[in-house]
Amino acid sequence: MNYHVDEQEISTLKFALDGMTADELRKLTALTGEKAPSRKGDMAALVFQYLAGERLRSIWEGLDELQRAAVAEAVHSPLGQFNAGVFRAKYGRDPDWGSKGDFGYDRKLSKLCFFFYSGVMPADLKARLQAFVPAPRQTTIAALDRLPPAYDRPFERWNEKERKREPGIEAVPLAVHERELAAQREMISVLRLVDAGKVAVSDKTRRASASTRLLDDVVERTIKVHDRGLARLIECADPALAALIAGDTRTRKHCMRAGERHLVVPASSETAFRRALRDSG
């Protein structure tokens, strides 16, 4: 309900409450600590009255740091919307919207849901919050002078014994290919050919000269060759073992044959290959 971005604007809190279903209002009413009335209109009125006056500030102060950041982002944005993707990129995770029941049903809301309705903060609520909610912290981008030799990539794998998915992190090596100097040299070579009149198109035949065709051929061959990064060459004791590993369903997706007794394992797949090799015995 309250955690999806909707492109519309909501003018008033009363309008937002009137647009909710009875089930949604019942969950929101439960956050007030009051007994929920049976009629939808009475529930909406109870929530509206609960958010009146100075209590709004008390509710905001009771939020955790990440929840207050979500409110601040909306209060100090032009449209007053919660953008989950932008928020996650800036703060690393979503704020707490509440807990989910089994299979995603019977969701219990957090008090952050008092501030957003279909991902939008009502304009009159936003105006009241502007009086005391400070601006959010500035967005920053971390920069490195030099890339690390590897980066940590998160993954999930199925634990057959525990019957659940388990998160993990594997180090993926980084290969840096400096192409700036090579491109400069190639550009100088092309300019020299042009200056020498070796790159031209005939006025009569409208065909490229031999040098032009040579350059085109070089470019065509270049785009057919792709640098896939670093790899490890593994030598097996005999061809039978190499064939066994390359054909095993657990390891074959992480390696490829290179001759009779050798396997090539991309650096990005080395950790997974070793793990699969251990699992296969």
Structure characterization notes:
The longest helix has 16 residues, at 180-195. With 281 residues, the chain is an alpha+beta fold. It contains 11 helices and 7 strands. Helix 2 (22-30) runs parallel beside helix 3. It folds into 3 domains: 13-129, no CATH class; 180-223, no CATH class; 231-280.
The share of residues in helices is 25-40%
Give the end-to-end Cα distance, rounded to a whole number of Å: 49 Å
User: How is the main sheet built?
Assistant: 3 strands, antiparallel
Strand elements, count: 7
- The global form is flat
Overall SS class: alpha+beta
| SSE string, helices as H and strands as E | HHHHHHEEHEEHHEHEEH
Strands side by side in the biggest sheet = 5-7-6
Radius of gyration using CA atoms only: 31 Å
What is the count of helical runs? Answer: 11
Residue runs with pLDDT of under 50 for 5 or more positions: 1-7
* Domain module tally: 3
Strand content: 5-15%
Mean pLDDT: 84
